Amino acid sequence: MKILFSPSESKNDTCKEKPIDKSSFIFENLFDFRMQAVKKYEEYINNADLKALQELFGIKNENEISNFQRDLKNSPTQQAITLYSGVSYEYLNFDILDKESQKYILENTLIFSNLFGVVKASDHLPFYKFKQGAKINNFALEKFYKEHFSKALDEYLKNEELLDLRAGFYDKFYTPKRKFSTYKFIKKGKVVSHFAKAYRGILLALCARIKAKNNAEILNHLPSNLSL
């Protein structure tokens, strides 16, 4: 089973491994498209005014902005699953999982980066900042990646059970053509949003612990605070 997952805007600035190259990513033949996006991003952050950068990064503090104006092609990296540190990743708590559970996540989880597009959890990324939905002038990365990566993803996932744990925004990057399972989190009759991030992390950790092969296995192991 393959699991589609969202990134987070919060990240760990702890990268120590070699800079990105073709081998850093799934779909090596599409590496040049990723680099096109990175080039546009770097040109923009090196020439945009303060207001535009505040919008792109989603931060107001001027002193923080320079920390994100980096040469990403030559920056150190780390595995995507350990780079992201938002709510979903806190509840996943990857570092405390046993080695086999970690291996399951690294091999079976696809994360939809707002800047780099779809990556495996085991792929390597540099520390970067890009607010969800932000635009680089008229260049919409979600449309760009949907156009250039959907065919490869369809082929990669064609024989897989599929679980989509992404936030709805990431349908703009890729819409599965095959049947898939997903979860909506409801409390007192209302769909929850913030807590949904936590539940997605909990479900990914559950999948890893039970080495889930399909959604039926997940349903049979739901924790007591989650029920149908």
Keywords for this entry:
228 residues, alpha/beta, five-stranded mixed sheet, 9 helices, globular
Compact overview of the structure:
One of its GO terms (biological process) is response to hydroperoxide. With 228 residues, this protein is an alpha/beta fold.
Describe the model.
This is Peroxide stress protein YaaA. The protein is an alpha/beta fold and 228 residues long. The protein has one domain (2-129, 136-219). Helices cover 38% and strands 12% of the residues. The protein is built from nine helices and nine strands. The strands form three sheets. A five-stranded mixed sheet has the order 4-3-1-6-7. The protein has a two-stranded antiparallel ribbon with strand order 2-5. Strand 8 (186-187) and strand 9 form a beta hairpin. It is globular, with a radius of gyration of 18 Å. The chain starts with a strand and ends in a 9-residue tail after the last helix. The mean pLDDT is 94.
